[in-house]
Amino acid sequence: MTEQATSFLSDRITSLAESQTIAMAKKARELAAQGYDVINLSFGEPDFQTPQYIKDAAKKALDDGFTFYTPVAGYLDLRQEIVNKLKRDNNLDYKPENIVVSTGAKQSIANVVMSLVNPGDEVIIFSPYWVSYEEVVKLAEGVPVQVKGTIDNDFVITPQQLEDAITSNTKLVMYSSPCNPTGSVFSKEELEAFANILAKHPQIFVMADEIYEYINFTGQHASMAQFDFIKDRVITVNGFSKGYAMTGWRVGYIAANKEIADACDKMQSQITSGTCSIAQKAAVAALKGGRGSAEEMSAAYLRRRDLVLGLMKEIPGIRTYVPQGAFYIFPEISSYFGKSYNGQVINNSNDLSMFILNDAYVAVVSGDAFGADECVRFSFAAADDKLVEAMRRLKESLAKLV
Ligand SMILES: Cc1ncc(COP(=O)(O)O)c(C=O)c1O
């Protein structure tokens, strides 16, 4: 469509960026449809099927007649299971009234931002960050303020950086740990240092996105909400997509103080209402089944991380580090900027990602989507042979750049 033809659209939608991870996946699918053997490492999802016991619970929910509208904040039994999980895994005390279940953690995050951020409020986003954080803040007319970690420090930002970014307009701090795209994990001590700073600023809330909690190779997951002196201002976001390989089911949740939970409930009541009845019953079964299946998948991701890391280290010009969680590696690739192949100059991470897709038929996501143009994101949630082949092709293609 021409610019004129789209002018009837709101400023809000026109200024919204398309999710680059989804855009890359679309391009990769198009090439695959033309018959190219594309290895897609751009996906943000497990390559495993949802465990069978969870699927069985969904079938049972249908047979048991769970086909009606659900309470906006989620079935009580699901919220109770989430409360139990937060106690069991994180030693956090909540009641079902503190939990709001949503159509994926993505909606949980949107609910939180829409409920807390006024136009002009500043939102500190630890960078590199998950693609949707910045866009949802802009939708709320907030001002994203990026605080950037670098590969030298395994992408972990320092307490001083947080302190320096805070102003009287700061309303919210957002981060994920384990982090998408870097796989960095905050230790309890690191979170405590942030919490101590935030304790001095009672107007600031924290959105702690813990959706990769079950894919943590350090063996220790820390929650910001464990520090009682700021717990009331922490909104913990989690969900079923990653740990239980349930991306298509669309179930995420928050745990927050009741006022914020009620606000998110109200927001959601006008936009989607409660999430799918069958998916909620499946989520109850997932939690009741414990962490066994998640741990098996996590062990596979760890093995694949080491596989990819070993092969990637042999590629000249790629700077690696060791991701401690999630299923991504976010190496620095800026040494290729200024190089070219067949007259095509690589100026940024987007150019490099397109080159890798078109020459190696490997789909990755450019780092600028995550606030770090010097990097590219590779998912290692793929079969071993695909990962090996992808690294082989990558090495071959990158060697053509001079
Ligand atoms: C850091 C992070 N938060 C939230 C989400 C959203 O997850 P969901 O599938 O539950 O909407 C994702 C998905 O990629 C993610 O990577």
UniProtKB/TrEMBL annotation:
Q: Which InterPro entries match?
A: Aminotransferase_I/II_large, AspAT/PAT-like, NHTrfase_class1_PyrdxlP-BS, PyrdxlP-dep_Trfase, PyrdxlP-dep_Trfase_major, PyrdxlP-dep_Trfase_small
GO biological process terms, alphabetically, are: amino acid metabolic process
Q: Which residues form a coiled coil?
A: none
User: If you read the UniProt record, what top EC class would you report for this enzyme, in one word?
Assistant: transferase
Q: Which residues cross the membrane?
A: none
Q: What is a single molecular function from GO for this protein?
A: transaminase activity
Q: Which cofactors?
A: pyridoxal 5'-phosphate
Keywords, alphabetical: Aminotransferase, Pyridoxal phosphate, Transferase
Report domain Aminotransferase class I/classII large positions.
Answer: 37-389
Q: Which Pfam families match?
A: Aminotran_1_2
Superkingdom of origin: Bacteria
Q: What is its EC number?
A: 2.6.1.-
Q: Family per UniProt?
A: Belongs to the class-I pyridoxal-phosphate-dependent aminotransferase family.
PANTHER family named among the record's database cross-references? ASPARTATE AMINOTRANSFERASE
Protein name as it appears in the record? Aminotransferase
Q: In which organism is this protein found?
A: Adhaeribacter arboris
Name the lineage.
Bacteria, Pseudomonadati, Bacteroidota, Cytophagia, Cytophagales
